[in-house]
Design the sequence.
């Protein structure tokens, strides 16, 4: 299978994107979910680090380019019907979320409410500066 | 927060859906990703089992209704920007994938190719019958 069939094997959605789940390769913790287009997947493979497509900014997003919280790729999986990716990553700095938490899934459903259950490790101002 | 704000807090996409990642609550293994609409999330919470929205069939999909491979809910998380769910589940029968594997992410990227790396535990004909 060539690199182009690597891309062609993916069932891209109508916007040309696929969801990519990032999981800590050692702890198994699910860190975040973001989106990739074909270029993002190609760059991820070529560079060995997670590169997503930012839907809000409309451009490639090299995870960690501002924060230093790069995700080094250990394994890339595609699911049974080819429409979801799973990245097993080494999370540099131990922080995946822009809020300064280890992962993005910190709203837990308790007693019918979404409650914040995971601590901020580093304040966003420390990560990104005050600008 | 009331049950309705539980639903209203979710950033549903333009189709009224949200991706939901199912993770084994003990092993941390990522089992699958599927979609929910508001009714599916409400049913999941009310019934304590994963209920998805099948985009291909256009109806609610009570995971395991045919296979018996029900996903019992242990924890439901919403991510930082409210547009992805993470379900920590107890996978009945130990099989989440319709191909008869433990999980759906069995295509691994190796040497530029997607290679099948996880074994079938139970043949689909045994799970669903020959029809």
Sequence:
């Amino acid at each position: 299978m060539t690199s182009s069939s690597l891309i062609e094997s993916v069932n891209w959605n109508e916007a040309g994107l696929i969801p990519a789940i990032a999981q800590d390769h050692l702890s198994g913790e699910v860190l975040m979910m973001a989106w990739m287009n074909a270029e993002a997947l190609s760059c991820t493979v070529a560079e060995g680090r997670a590169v997503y497509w930012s839907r809000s900014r409309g451009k490639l997003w090299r995870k960690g380019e501002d924060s230093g919280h790069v995700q080094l790729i250990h394994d890339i999986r595609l699911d049974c019907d080819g429409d979801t990716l799973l990245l097993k990553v080494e999370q540099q700095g131990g922080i995946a979320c822009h809020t300064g938490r280890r992962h993005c899934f910190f709203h837990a459903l308790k007693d019918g409410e979404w409650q914040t259950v995971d601590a901020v490790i580093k304040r966003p101002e420390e990560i990104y500066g005050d600008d």
About this structure: Chain A touches chain B through 39 residues (CB under 8 Å). The helical segments of chain A are 3-8, 38-47, 124-128.
